[in-house]
Amino acid sequence: MVEQAVFASSTFLFTLLLARWAEPADYGAWTVCFGLFGVFGTLHSACLLEPGTVWSAGRHGSEPGRYGAWLTAASLTAGLTAGAALAALALVLLLNGLGPEAGAVAALAAATPFVLAQWMLRRLAILRRRFATAAVIFGVQAAALVGGASILDCSDALNAWTAASLYGFAALGAAAALAAALGVRPRLAAGSGWSRRRLADHFDWARWAVPSAALAWLPTNCYTFALPLIAGLEEAAALGAATALMMPALNALLALAAARTPWFAECLANGGQPALRVALRRTSALALGGAAAWSVVLICFGEIAFRALFPGKLAIASEVVIWTAAAPPAYALTMTLDAALRASGRLRAIFVARLAAAATALLVGPAAAYALGARGAAAAQSLALMAAAALMAREFRPNAFRARIEVGRTSFR
Questions:
Q1: In whole angstroms, what is the distance from residue 24 CA to residue 241 CA?
Q2: What is the DSSP string of 146-194?
Q3: Is 407's pLDDT higher than 60?
Q4: Total Cβ atoms within 10 A of residue 62
Q5: Which of 13, 306, 358, 351 is nearest to 166 (CA)?
Q6: How far is the C-alpha of 20 from the C-alpha of 308, rounded, in Å?
Q7: Residue 410, pLDDT above cutoff 60
Q8: Cα 104 from chain centroid?
Q9: What pLDDT score was predicted for residue 335?
Q10: How far apart are CA 214 and CA 358, in angstroms?
Q11: What does the alpha-carbon distance between residue 141 and residue 48 come to, in Å, rounded to a whole number?
């Protein structure tokens, strides 16, 4: 939990300072660019990070060094591919007269390989129980981001392009430090039979992981791209700033869900469906209680905190915070149910629930954003999460849930 808090704080503090110091248009451009990066981050997680986590502790647990080196090299390769796509997009933006946006996307394109490698190396550090090492490295990274942003602001040079460049340099430093601490030397060995088999395994995993991950990403991120087109970069900046106030609660919920998944699987294996339901009720009560408390804080003090943290032009959008208050409980229930379903192998149920959330976001979101701007987008996000939670909860009704363990493969059913 300490390592997760330190890691999350680096990006959170950096985003907070950008929203506070940069012009709303620059912060909006950064939000859009980071959303673009999130697309590739989601694909990386589905294809490499998730299966790498599972198999590092399972089928490849006897060769952690070799597999870790392959995963890191594969992450760098995926990052170079994503960077090339982002560079092409930057060129298109430049040719269409969007110079500042093109510069930010180009800087993020250069940073992508190092950010993806950093994520993979962080996961390897956790698997090897090097929590303190990772926490120290990400603490230094957070200090570098905060210090760099302060210097840029004092020099009147803080904008979307310099922010993306600073983020990339920080990711490069963290990735290099983690690789040195873990003794990982990236090696893909693309021509070997062993490497080809690993690649085939990951592609097989990605057949179900990519659609589910894409659908999970869509409801909470599509407005990052829709708002600038519908209501302008300032509205996108307002939504990004309001979302930043939710991040402490969301990061805690992510950590809780990751920790509870193996526990849910153990409960199901030892006590069957009744034990899983008891565990799910207890975890849901904990997650919902904490999330509801955070929502109360947002309702009572959110606008005051928003104006204090984001003075200037963004302060007029402080009422957006109230519209995000429903998101933490919805997110808490969705993540808890998702963890329980994954532990019991109900991947088809997760896919259907995520599909319903994506459909809700696409049907309701554009109209809400057009009518209410960032406030409508925030409300649509919460509604989409509620739709997913409702369908996931149906799987745990009496006589509606039957677990089946399939050895050696995972499938929809």
A1: 10
A2: HHHHHHHHHTT--SHHHHHHHHHHHHHHHHHHHHHHHT------TTSHH
A3: no
A4: 8
A5: 13
A6: 9
A7: no
A8: 20
A9: 87
A10: 9
A11: 24
Residues whose CB falls within 8 Å of the CB of residue 413, separated by 6 or more in sequence, listed in order:
346, 347, 348, 404
Pairwise CA distance, residues 117 & 73, whole Å: 8
| Residue in this structure with the two tokens 């905060």, named with its chain if needed | 146
Residue spans per domain, the chain: 2-188, 228-394
> What average pLDDT does the structure give for the chain?
80
Band (14; pLDDT cuts 50, 70, 90): confident
Confirm if 34 and 42 have CB atoms less than 8 A apart: no
pLDDT category at 316 given cuts 50, 70, 90 is: low
Cβ partners under 8 Å of residue 148, min gap 6 = 166, 169, 170
C-alpha 236/C-alpha 317 separation (Å) is 11
Tell me whether residue 350 is exposed, middle or buried, using C-beta atoms within 10 angstroms of its C-beta: 0 to 12, 13 to 18, 19 or more.
buried
How many degrees, rounded to 5, is the angle at CA 181 between CA 178 and CA 184?
A: 75
Structure tokens at 264: 């849910």
Of 26-35, 247-256, 281-290, 338-347, least confident by mean pLDDT is: 247-256
Please, are residues 350 and 211 in contact by the beta-carbon 8 Å criterion? Answer: no
Residues 41 and 59: their CA atoms lie apart, in Å, by 25
- The Cα diameter of the chain in Å comes to 64
Decide if pLDDT at 267 tops 80.
yes
Q: Which DSSP letter does residue 382 get?
A: H
User: What's the whole-number mean pLDDT along residues 63-74?
Assistant: 82
Q: For residue 161, what are the contacts with CB-CB under 8 A and spacing of at least 6?
A: 100, 103, 104, 106, 107
The per-residue b/e assignment along 391-409, b for 16 or more CB within 10 angstroms, e otherwise, is bbbebbeeeebeeeeeeee
DSSP 315: G
Token readout for 388 is: 């997913």
Distances (CA, A) of 82 to 89, 267, 363: 11, 40, 29
Q: Where are the alpha helices (DSSP H) in 310-408?
A: 320-323, 327-343, 347-372, 374-394
Q: Which residue has the higher pLDDT, 354 or 234?
A: 354
